[in-house]
Please model this.
Amino acid sequence: MPARHGRVVLMSSARSGHSYIFVIGGVMSAVGKGIATASIGKVLTARGLSVNLVKIDPYLNVDAGTMNPIEHGEVFVLDSGLETDQDMGNYERYLGRDLGPDDYMTSGMIYQSVITRERNLEYHGKCVEAIPHVRDEIVRRLKRAAEVSSSDISVVEIGGTVGDFQNALFIDAARVIHLEQPDNVVFVMVSYLPVPGTVGEMKTKPTQTAVRELNSYGVQPDIIIARSTHALDQKRKEKLSISCSVRPEHIISAPDVDSIYDVPLNFERDQLSDTLLRLLGIEAKQKADLAEWEEFAAHAHNGKGSVKIGIVGKYFDTGDFVLSDAYISVIEAIKFSAYRAGVKPEIEWLNAKKYESDPASIKELEACDGILVPGGFGETGIEGKIAAIRFAREHKIPYFGLCYGMQLMTVEFARNVAGLAGAHTTEIDPKTEHPIIAILPEQAEKLAKKNYGGTMRLGAYPCTLEKGTIAADSYKKGDISERHRHRYEVNPDYVEQLAKAGLVFSGRSPDGHLMEIAELPKSVHPFMLGTQFHPELRARPLTPHPLFSAFIKAAIEKRG
Ligand code: GLN
Model:
């Protein structure tokens, strides 16, 4: 079928041999569908296959950049600069590789391109409708993601739960792809089996209902991943099997785990990769190679000593549960480096606001082996963060600043070491006498146009390291690339003055204009380093980030 009237070429055969695994949620959200998807990716790559993982978010935001991380979790930035859902971070961590912008889509993104096409008269006078036009745009994007990644299998997580109004078009797109190539598509439902306290017994009914709901879309799951607090027993497996028309060996028991990194190993214990490959008619290239992963995952259970890392931020009166989502990449990056060093990290959430209202309370930082100020925006708790950084510097506690944490480290240094009283970032004080951190002219132009979506420096940028610094020694190379997400920069007008006072800009953009890493020499402080980029976005279980590893090492040394 040729591409006419803006319709996609549905039957195009470019990737018709490509396989798709669609992961759809049943019963309720927040049961670990993202981790299940990432784990499916992991077990398939362990069989020597190339896999790309795709996240579909049904919301109307065009990307995840405008959403509050406390409500929606961290904004994960790809190399391309696309701001995505935190699940993409899990995907990259489990796969151990970068994903591309085609591997992420939102309803907003899809509607935006359909509407733009409509405005450009590309539908030639047709009435533009959700079905077929929007659905076909989803199909087109899924095929493009497969094409661009040149992988063998796309594992596609459809956000939300079956029965949601918002994700129906995505399920319909999956149905269409299945219709076109029935032998290359597998549907996995990640469902939840509650064990109500009053009954004390695992109930299968909600899952039965969810499968029936999915059936009403014309989709039958091939596999059910049965999430629950407990393991699924044989009796319930049979019950689910007969009522949902899913073979008992295709029902995978997925009880709660202490560490999310155990999930791929548990899946393999139930031979999930064999089942998936059999259903797809694909031959594995090798036996499951999970040895390195197993070794890494074991650390979560048997790390010996511990290291206490205080994370100082502004949101920290919202509860640990929310925070672990908002800072997931930071937490995981700490874990990977700590595990590699043979210790378990103990993370302490420290509320910067407290150091403002009760300055004496800052003494609690003495108990930390390392202090970290993560990325952030705005005024709340800012003087508290600066006070914490000062404490770390003066008490020689290893300090690691990520983005805002680097900017504020520079402000603290300017005020208290370089003698630039009142120095600040113009994000907080536009009239400061010493705008140490400021918007550079290129950014200012965009901001003036209120084009907030496009005013940040986003995605991967190259950086050149200065020999003999902590940064260069940690990376063990001179040229790196890291991901950014910020508006403000170290003001070039102050670089010389700050450097004279002892701050080392050990990483700069290749043209020397942008300061990417600031540090204090080892002779002055055991580890005081900040990065304008977000190194946490590049930390992976099997390849911990060199700067996190250097920070953790310094923290272990401080612990003694
Ligand atoms: N608010 C700072 C900026 O926009 C830092 C951003 C961040 O930490 N991601 O430059």
